[in-house]
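Two entries, shown back to back:
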Amino acid sequence: MWGPPGIAYVYLVYGMYDCLNVVTEPPGRPAALLIRAVEPLEGMDAMRAARLEAIRQRRRADEARLEAERDRLLRLPAERLARGPGLITAAFGIDRSVTGLDLVDPDSPIRLEPPEPGARPPEPVWTERVGIGYAGSPWTEHRWRLVDASSRSVSGPPAPRVR
């Protein structure tokens, strides 16, 4: 997380979920943005398969349990496939080995890209952070969660619509 900006920083949380962050500050200033949700536009079958593989690896589930999970994932709406930090890494097969990858390099296998021309513009809204109630003031008072209010893939509480 010590830079340079635009590289991936992946860490393990709760001893079981990897979380993807994008480093945001120059080298020497540890700061990153947690990616909490991704709205799938394509590749949903690959995301479902990757999530099933993550379940297989994490839980060492028997075949009956895996079949039930496969059925559940097939019925899961696309907007929920990567709605949550741990679900993103599972859906894209991301683990801590990705740390240090340049996410703004156009040749990178995992990268941030600008929207397609004519794509729906996001409705950015700043809200309170999720899951930090234990931290108390001043952390719970900052609106450091940036969401696209028009997306159905936002994780945590829904953002108010901007109109």
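entry 2 starts here
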Amino acid sequence: MHTVIIYHNPECETSRNTLALIRNAGLEPHIIDYRVSPPSRTKLVEMLAQMEISPRELLREKGTPYAELGLNNPALTANALVNAMMQHPILINRPIVVTAHGVKLCRPSELVLEILPTPQRGAFTKEDGERVVDEAGNRIIAK
């Protein structure tokens, strides 16, 4: 059995597309609405390390208190940025997917294909009409 976890926001198109791609691979992930049940501080720091990105790279600006909190200040430490994400989970960019093959911030959604343990089972078109997987289950690379 393959365990896939998605830190998800059902209101986000990218997150919904990522979830649909996981399901297109025949998997039913453990879905965590990170706004309601954010990862623990330890888990967030662990995922950042696994993704090999900094807290600043995980910060979401749009639709968050990013500006009001002054998070654009380059002098803020990684610890301060993690503290802000813990206090305001909406600052955590999404979706984050965790599989046995890695952890990835899936923006764009098709990045999830790099870490899924099973292949796509058929064609997939994102909500905006962009085809990303063909009928044979192969990723379509945009030209």
